[in-house]
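Good morning C.,

I know you're traveling, so I'll keep this short. The sequence:
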Amino acid sequence: MDAVDATMEKLRAQCLSRGASGIQSLARFFRRMDRDRSRSLDAAELQRGLAELGLVLDTAEAQGVCRRWDRDGSGTLDLEEFLRALRPPMSQVREAVITAAFAKLDRSGDGVVTVDDLRGVYSGRAHPRVRSGEWTEEEVLRRFLDNFDSSEKDGQVTLAEFQDYYSGVSASVDTDEEFVAMMTSAWRL
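The tokens, ready to paste straight into the viewer:
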């Protein structure tokens, strides 16, 4: 394992110690930091941002991470690639059940889950806030979808965003059998 791999393991462990949504929270934080919407950060921005979250990297570690995910030679790391690499590795069994759940939601088959896709699979009519008249069924479905929408809340969830969400969940489930049982039950697969 090289120094950057060791740094990634350190960051992964620090994120996962914050619970199932640790990496997702880091992704949201970095997207807010990315004011120019370049989807990249330089080593100093990475180090400062992580420090604000209590995740400590020294200068050499931050520079090594940036070099690894610098896709265009600009001296900055690509946020999406970095965050994808930070996700804990999942077994093929876990990836397959996540993909199956996504496919169930993606009724149009276009690779993106929207509220229209959800409408064909789930109903929000029984939600307490719909029953009270506070929310519409559309609002319930949109809020449900927002749980998986890890980038800007655009009302569309890609397989990568769905996998990002479940990578955090996966890290907190010990065995493949337990994870598959949980997914099968939750998504009625």
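Safe travels,
E.
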